[in-house]
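Suppose you are handed a protein chain with no further information: no name, no annotation, nothing but its sequence. What can you learn? This example shows the usual starting point.
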Amino acid sequence: MKIYETGPAPNPRRVRIFAAEKGITDIEYIQLDLKKGENLTPEHKARNPLTKVPVLELDDGTCISETIAICRYFEETVPEPSLMGETAIEKATIEMWQRWCDFYFMLPVGMCFQHSTGYFADRMTPVKEWGDESGKNAAKFMAFLNQHLESNDYIAGDKFTVADITAVCALDFARVVGLRPSEDQTHLLRWHKQVSARPSMSA
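A reasonable first move is to predict its three-dimensional structure. Written in structure tokens, the prediction is:
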């Protein structure tokens, strides 16, 4: 298997952590420089017409794009340990939190980065006001998570799941645009310290 990725980016990191939690090691990681537009080449467009990373390429040439789709493939091929739930209620609860962390945390952080820094100004039109608003929305979700984690060890229940992976990657990447939990968000800080100690976080 090959994964086309960009090391510092949060979505490829989500896949690396997921694979590490599963103990999947037979992956060749191929780096693409997004700033240089290496993801915009005809070769990469053949793997993913939307030109994003990460992309999983299987040994038979099949390509799977989108972070959670790749994680789903790993979940189905290596069921243990389960990171997406085993029972119907577990699966639904984890999916709910995963989507919330994706849509209301990871996405706003990404929009804040793209529109505040101008990193991709050669291929998009940054809108500073949208970057600022996205940062505010991400901060609101941090407060929401802090409240939730007051009575929960992990985000989607009593064990580590894909929702925690999404949230920790969003929180860590948020530092690039100056977004951090406040000192009084003690439950979020406790959770972050707890999940950051996992060996998979260095993947």
